[in-house]
Amino acid sequence: MKQTVKTPEAFLGVGYTHDRAGLPLEAVRIPVAQPAAGQVLIRVAASSLNPLEYKLAELNFMGRTPPVGLGLDLAGVVVAVGHGVGDVTVGDAVAALADLDGDGGWVASGGGEGGYALAHRFLTARKPPSLSFLDAAALPMCFLSAFAGLHKAVQTGDTVYVPGGGGGVGHLAVQMAARALGARMVVSSGSTPQSIALARQSGAQHVFDYKHDDIAADIARLTDGRGVDLVFDATYSEQGFVESAKTVRRGGSWIVLGVGPGRTTRLAETHSPVDAILAERGAERVDVNLLRYFSEPGTLDGEARALLRQGMDLAMEWAEQGLVVPHIGRTIDSAVDAINAGLQSLKSGHGVVGKVAVIVDRDLALGTSPGAP
Ligand SMILES: NC(=O)c1ccc[n+]([C@@H]2O[C@H](COP(=O)([O-])OP(=O)(O)OC[C@H]3O[C@@H](n4cnc5c(N)ncnc54)[C@H](OP(=O)(O)O)[C@@H]3O)[C@@H](O)[C@H]2O)c1
Fold first, then answer.
1. What range defines the domain where residue 228 resides?
2. 18 and 153 in a common domain
3. Distances (CA, A) of 270 to 126, 261, 266, 348
4. pLDDT-derived band of residue 112, with 50, 70 and 90 as boundaries?
5. 153 and 64 in one domain?
6. Atom of ligand 1 minimally distant from the CA of 52
7. Number of domains in the chain
8. Same domain for 182 and 271?
9. What pLDDT does residue 249 have?
10. How far, in Å, is the centroid of ligand 1 from the Cα of 50?
11. 233 C-alpha to center of ligand 1: Å?
12. Do 100 and 141 touch, CB atoms closer than 8 A?
């Protein structure tokens, strides 16, 4: 007989309550739906912040009408499974990325009711007992972004440049290239002593200051004038894109996360010289975008699902092995004010190194509940 756990009809989450641009988020009532075929329902222990959560209003809520609950990175315990999910069961400790066009699992006040969120099975992985809920919840969005950009692109012995190796995606990308995928040399950059230190700790042999150094010249010097085999740029910086494009070798790859040069504001398209710089070098531009899978459902085909599922499984495996380990620069309780303050820091680019973890259910996240370390 199928196990069931009693769940409330709704909980008080955090998100957008009506059509308005950006922060602050507010308390929002989120219905707890039962999982459809291929989905699991998770009682959320921990989450983390992602820039997408302050950008979602600008993205027209990915086609939804508010209320929209946020907290898309999830770690917690499965409380119900939908039809066709046989290999994850009620009581399993998991990490997951909530469906990007569904609701997340933050709660408006950490002391009260629990947060619940649905995730597709292919975006859910079993959490190893040695990995904390907080670490597991820091991985899904940023790890999958780095994985989608790098896993097929990096060949053993490659030289790789990851600008912004102190960022959420960047520090995992540096570790992935250097420790899991066999790059020979990883170069990175940052603008503060803390982010530069994190890029270095993550495995970058050379880390430059993008506000003061001429990184293209430094990389040319390090590579006997050739440039790196590939760049993975997840910085969403127009100026940064131009600089990082100049570091790719002839015939190399420039991989960009998101909508790419000339479109980072979403509101207006601007001219970008990046394609011309790449063409001059005969370098390939590769666009990687997780959001596209959800805003254009046709792109979420069997291959994309398999890639995301493999990515979620490897996120857990590599974290357990100590190869790709999230750096939690700050931990906050899930509460409206704390989340708004955290997202504001992320948006301003000041005061966040690595990831901001969110404790959604203190007992579950830090206690001795199933799967806790
Ligand atoms: N579409 C998608 O699939 C997708 C998925 C995930 C994330 N994203 C987007 O990717 C971006 C990064 O996400 P995140 O979580 O890593 O954000 P984050 O933690 O805020 O990191 C941003 C990083 O960019 C660095 N940076 C900014 N300007 C730079 C420049 N000119 N040169 C080099 N580095 C620069 C910052 O370095 P310092 O702090 O040292 O200044 C920081 O390390 C966000 O815009 C996010 O929305 C898109």
1. 143-292
2. no
3. 43, 8, 10, 22
4. low
5. no
6. 47
7. 2
8. yes
9. 98
10. 10
11. 8
12. no
What mean pLDDT value characterizes the chain? Answer: 94
Mean pLDDT on 122-141: 98
Contact 232, 286 (CB under 8 A): no
What pLDDT does residue 7 have?
92
In a domain, 249, yes or no: yes
Task: Work out the average pLDDT over 335-356.
Answer: 95
| Residue 81 and residue 149 share a domain | no
Most ligand 1 atoms within 8 A of CB, residue of 70, 142, 145, 346 to mutate: 145
Cα Rg of the chain, angstroms: 20
The per-residue pLDDT for 1 is: 40
Q: Ligand 1: which of 143, 169, 172, 346 to mutate, judged by most atoms within 8 Å of the beta carbon?
A: 169
Ligand 1 pocket (Cβ < 6 Å) reads: 50-52, 55, 141-142, 145, 163-164, 166-170, 189-192, 195, 210, 234-237, 239-240, 257-258, 289-291, 346, 349, 352
Whether 300 maps to a domain, the answer reads no
Backbone angles phi, psi at 99, to 5 degrees: -55, 125
Q: CA–CA separation, 40 vs 38, rounded Å?
A: 7
Determine which helix (DSSP H) or strand (DSSP E) holds 250, and give its type and residue range: strand 248-257
CA of 210 to the centre of ligand 1 (A): 13
